[in-house]
């Protein structure tokens, strides 16, 4: 089976820490014996979209690919130009309403919605995205991105703090997401933490080297996510793989991920005072959820690769 992966989000020399979760998941598919080529396209303008079509056409002429798998809905309409089965994975930022409507975000949203109509099959990373899609189906493929459990594992807390030069005494909370993304709402998290004393510290990251994220997740006392919208947030899954308590707004599939786990909380009242109270209670009880077992069963890269490959096989069986 030969698969051509199309994505506009992929690591480059300028942005080496872009979409590490996608890299891990595609690598796992390859380790399952599936041949894949990744073609990075530029979706920044109409011109670049048409240029991408020629790049894909040239790629298809060099190898007999069985199907095209496109990631992110704003790239989806590129695939209608080719006589190949076309699967599109929607990750959240494509179908969720943007933090702010602009000409660019309106175009992205419209293209992503139209893409759901012209694909052979759609994959959504969470139930909430199915509800956002204008194309409804009886049995949608809901497959989140998986976690690399070899990378995200339990480590010694104090040693992790020493490596990151963090205080051994403070109660440290990690902000869930890249702080520069408006949809993550770092200001809300900062306002909440301002309600607490000097013993508490919020640390933020912004496109940090992905190899360091396991250290952060093992060094801190809890993960605080204040996002306005999400698809299936990787940081929550990665944190659970490290048995870290979660405090999050009700976005994406977080509620399902933390269901049944001790000391994991959904924020129902988004006032800073209310969030601060949850943080304080979460840290004070010292309970760690046994999240790793749940992640291993439902969200490992190996388990997710099996599901994606089954979609490939099903599409190809029904096409030919």
Radius of gyration: 20 Å
CATH topology call of the largest domain: Rossmann fold
Query: If classified by CATH, what would the architecture of the largest domain be?
Result: 3-Layer(aba) Sandwich
Count of individual beta strands = 11
Total number of helical segments?
A: 12
> How many angstroms does the end-to-end distance come to?
14 Å
The 3D shape can be described as globular
The main sheet orders its strands as 2-1-3-4-5-6
The count of domains is: 2
Which bin fits the share of residues in helices? Answer: 25-40%
CATH class descriptor of the largest domain:
Alpha Beta
Mean pLDDT metric: 93
Order of helices and strands: EHEHEEHEHEHEHEHEHEHEHHH
Q: Largest beta sheet, briefly?
A: 6 strands, parallel
| Secondary structure category | alpha/beta
Task: Kindly report the name of the CATH homologous superfamily of the largest domain.
Answer: Glycogen Phosphorylase B
